[in-house]
Design goal:
Blueprint (H helix, E strand, L loop, with lengths): L17 H12 L3 E2 H4 L5 H6 L9 E4 L3 E2 L9 E2 L9 H12 L3 E6 L10 H14 L4 E5 L7 H9 L4 E3 L9 H4 L6 H14 L3 E8 L5 H13 L4 E6 L16 H14 L4 E4 L11 H8 L4 H8 L3
Parallel strand pairs: 2-5, 3-4, 5-6, 6-7, 7-8, 8-9, 9-10
Antiparallel strand pairs: 1-2
The structure holds iron/sulfur cluster (SF4).
């Protein structure tokens, strides 16, 4: 059924607009990458143009556009990693100021090829942004650093506001969905350490439509809560090319709504963003986090984030 006709609820308009062009130019001026572009995110137009009334947002991808891993769902290029750009932390912080972002999302490719797997470089970028404006909220979507606690601790010590790490799918499907160096327990241990050792909100994302069963998704939510994960997002997997993992099914929006209800009302996640077009950093609770970090109670923040 892969690459067959997408259902109506998955149709998105192409990126355009002045704000979109401005952000694109600033990124090029500072020689920066975004996961939006590298992973061909369908929401780029809306995010960059700030269609939700925000200043617009982009997810900076650190440490080059080539990953040391090859997950079967991901459109980022594998192998041939670049030498680290020592100026990147400063360049990202400059772009943040120029674009006028008050909520920044940082992610990176995996760099299993580096001694510290890039943890130091990632932490330095957080610190550089916070040094320029301590009010800027920083969400980081980090690799698993092969589950090495001292590397995860480098990120925690840089004090981002949200620490996200994606578990991506249910335990049974880790392979073949993710690279063999990734793993269910390893990802849970990263989230557990972040929840235990930091004041940051912890967050993860699960793709639907790769062959998971409802009971497996439910168990994954329970496992995530058992390690203190605050925020979970659910989005529809879309096949980037014929050489990537096939879509097993296009999950109906009602199913996404059901998972959101279970997550918040039964399992006490602080926030759950769930919908076919939801991605790790698209409509994924930034507004919620921003509201609670600026002093609002969780329920009011949820309503604000959903535009209720
Ligand atoms: S680790 Fe996997 S998901 Fe992340 S950028 Fe690399 S290939 Fe993509």
């Amino acid at each position: 059924m892969s690459r067959s006709r997408k259902p109506e609820w998955l149709k998105m308009r192409p990126p355009s607009g002045e704000r979109f062009t401005e952000i694109k130019q600033t990124l090029r001026d500072h020689d920066l990458h975004t996961v939006c572009e590298e992973a061909s995110c369908p929401n780029m137009g809306e995010c960059w143009s700030g269609a939700d009334g925000s200043a617009g947002t982009a997810t900076f991808m650190l440490m080059g556009d080539r990953c040391s891993r090859g997950c079967n769902f991901c459109d980022v290029q594998t192998g041939g990693m670049e030498t680290l750009d020592e100026d990147e932390p400063e360049n990202v912080a400059s772009a943040v100021t120029e674009i006028g972002l008050d909520y920044v999302v940082l992610t990176s490719v995996d760099r299993d090829d580096l001694e510290d797997q890039g943890a130091g470089h990632f932490a330095q970028t957080i610190r550089e942004i916070k040094r320029r404006d301590p009010e800027t909220l920083v969400e980081v979507l980090i690799p698993d650093f092969q589950g090495e606690p001292e590397l995860v601790q480098k990120i925690i010590d840089a004090e981002p506001d949200v620490i996200a790490h994606n578990i991506e799918t249910v335990e049974r499907l880790q392979w073949p969905v993710r690279d063999r160096r990734a793993g269910y327990e390893q990802s849970l241990s990263v989230l557990e350490q972040a929840a235990r050792e930091s004041d940051a909100y912890t967050k993860t994302s699960v793709m639907l439509g790769v062959g998971e069963y409802h009971h497996e998704v439910y168990q994954t939510m329970r496992d995530l809560r058992s390690v203190g994960t605050d925020i979970v997002t659910f989005g529809q997997y879309l096949q980037p090319s014929r050489s990537h993992l096939e879509v097993s099914d296009f999950v109906h929006p009602d199913v996404f709504d059901t998972y959101q209800q279970i997550a918040e009302e039964e399992l006490d996640f602080l926030y759950c963003a769930s919908g076919p077009m939801v991605r790790s950093s698209y409509r994924a609770g930034e507004l919620f986090v921003e509201s609670v970090l600026r002093g609002e109670d969780a329920e009011t923040a949820r309503q604000r984030a959903r535009g209720d």
